[in-house]
């Protein structure tokens, strides 16, 4: 599953600084060039330096809240500035293999509105996703659970590679080892991912439910 080309590459800049072993900023001061990881089993540590988050934050989420979306145990989180001005946050909740993660992105104000519109414009088959924010759209009929939500001017999106979602491996096996697992299953996954945004918004369903995943009637190529 591809990830969006975002409005700004602030998070990528932050990642580059991290790889170089450099960081900037202090508590209470957003900094696009810093990133922090936590190794607790339940939540980002209180000592994690804030990075971005002036208009919206995702580092208040706990590991336990994200774990039902990932088949491997979450062991750390990387927090980066996100959005056009770097005032939002991107939180990557990662397993020991950093390529296995749940990626949460939030931004507020003009950044939030711009990011929401940008994401939806990139969807090949945009369709309403019920139960999250003031409005939300997901990329239906595209072997994807990608979605974008907004409440007021706060944008939120949560993404995960499909094969890393609990229960999807068996569906892929039935679909000749592909992600052609059916639009209904992708919508269930998108709705499960959206529960994370409901935690950000403080409203709506926050219980991850993947119990409806099932093998489609036909999985022929």
Please give a structural write-up.
It is a single chain. A hairpin with a 6-residue loop joins β5 (126-128) and β6 (135-139). This protein has 221 residues and is an alpha+beta fold. Helix content is 24%, strand content 20%. The model is unreliable at 1-43 and 45-49 (pLDDT under 50).
How would the blueprint of this fold be written?
Layout lengths: L9 H10 L16 E3 L24 H4 L9 E7 L5 E7 L6 E7 L1 H14 L3 E3 L6 E5 L7 E5 L2 E7 L7 H7 L8 H19 L20
Antiparallel strand pairs: 1-2, 2-3, 3-4, 4-8, 5-6, 6-7, 7-8
Radius of gyration: 17 Å
Which percent range describes the beta-strand content?
A: 15-25%
Compressed to H and E, one letter per element, the order equals HEHEEEHEEEEHH
Q: Based on CA inertia axes, which overall geometry fits? A: globular
Q: Average pLDDT, to the nearest integer? A: 81
* Largest beta-sheet characterization: 8 strands, antiparallel
Total beta-strand segments: 8
Structural class based on helices, strands and sheet pairing: alpha+beta
Distance between the termini: 18 Å
How do the strands of the widest beta sheet line up side by side? 1-2-3-4-8-7-6-5
Low-pLDDT residue spans = 1-43, 45-49
Number of domains: 1
| Number of helices, where a helix is a run of at least 4 consecutive DSSP H or I residues | 5
Overall helicity: 10-25%
Q: Summary?
A:
The protein is α+β, with helices and mostly antiparallel strands. The chain has five helices and eight strands, in the order H-E-H-E-E-E-H-E-E-E-E-H-H.
Throw out a few tags for this protein:
single chain, 221 residues, alpha+beta, eight-stranded antiparallel β-sheet, 5 helices, 24% helix, globular
């Amino acid at each position: 599953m591809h990830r969006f080309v975002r409005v700004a590459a602030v998070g990528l800049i932050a990642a580059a600084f991290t790889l170089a072993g450099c960081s900037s900023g202090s508590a209470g001061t957003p900094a696009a060039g810093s990133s922090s990881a936590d190794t607790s089993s339940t939540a980002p540590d209180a000592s994690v330096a804030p990075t971005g988050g002036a208009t919206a934050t995702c580092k208040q989420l706990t590991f336990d809240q994200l774990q039902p979306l990932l088949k491997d145990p979450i062991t750390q989180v990387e927090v980066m500035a996100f959005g056009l001005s770097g005032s939002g946050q991107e939180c990557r909740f990662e397993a020991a293999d950093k390529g296995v993660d749940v990626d949460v992105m939030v931004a507020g104000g003009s950044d939030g509105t711009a990011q929401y519109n940008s994401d939806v414009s990139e969807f090949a088959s945009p369709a309403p996703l019920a139960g999250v924010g003031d409005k939300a759209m997901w990329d239906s009929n595209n072997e994807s659970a990608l979605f974008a939500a907004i409440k007021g001017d706060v944008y939120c999106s949560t993404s995960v590679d499909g094969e890393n979602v609990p229960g999807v491996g068996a569906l892929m096996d039935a679909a000749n080892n592909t992600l052609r697992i059916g639009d209904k299953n992708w919508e269930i996954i998108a709705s499960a991912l959206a529960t994370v945004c409901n935690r950000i918004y403080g409203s709506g369903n926050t219980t991850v439910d993947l119990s409806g995943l099932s093998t489609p009637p036909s999985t022929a190529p």
